[in-house]
Amino acid sequence: MVRRDYQLNGLDSIMYDGVMSKVQAIQNAAVANVYGIQAGVEFDLGGGFRLTSDFNYQKGEEELDDGTKSPSRHAAPCFGDTKLIYNSGKINLQFYSVYSGKKTYDQLPEEEKSKTEYMPLMKMEITWSPGWYTLNFKADYKFLNGFNIEIWNRKYHRSEIQTI
Question: Is 16 helix (H, G, I), strand (E, B) or coil?
Fold first, then answer.
């Protein structure tokens, strides 16, 4: 959805609050195509251990107002999580990582390339979206029915800014 010039009762401008104003309307702009794949696996390793992993990959393209194509804002970089889980009745331990891939300047949607207020800058003063991952540990112990204690720790890491 984008704001575009429009006509109201055949007029492209109207008097609004004492000011001659151009008529605009929110319109369905064009076509966007997003496609991808999601895969998940789960392995029972025995002895209370389990390994799970989910991965998502998306790609998209949208048509801009001028008819050119741009990567879609609605297609996230690749992302997923991988977990090693131990469960033995009262205790549940998880070591896991959540991660997301980067988007280079060329992979960013046109309207995002100039948003330096929240997009990091590379050395050549162009924006990009860095990849990141977290390393997590979570422990859960059930004392009684309905009463448990949970301890967790998270370490965040963002990919380093690179020159192009």
Answer: strand
Contact present, 130 and 118 (Cβ < 8 Å): no
Name the pTM for this structure.
Answer: 0.68
Cα-based torsion angle of the residue sequence 63, 69, 75, 78 in order, rounded to the nearest 10 degrees:
170
DSSP-assigned letter for residue 145: T
- Which residues in the chain land under pLDDT 50? 162-164
| Residue-level pLDDT at 75 | 82
Burial of 64 (0-12, 13-18, 19+ CB in 10 A): middle
| Closest to 114 in 3D by CA, of 132, 128, 100, 98 | 128
Calculate ∠ Cα 102-105-107, nearest 5°.
65
**Residue-level pLDDT at 163:** 44
* Terminal C-alpha separation, the chain: 33
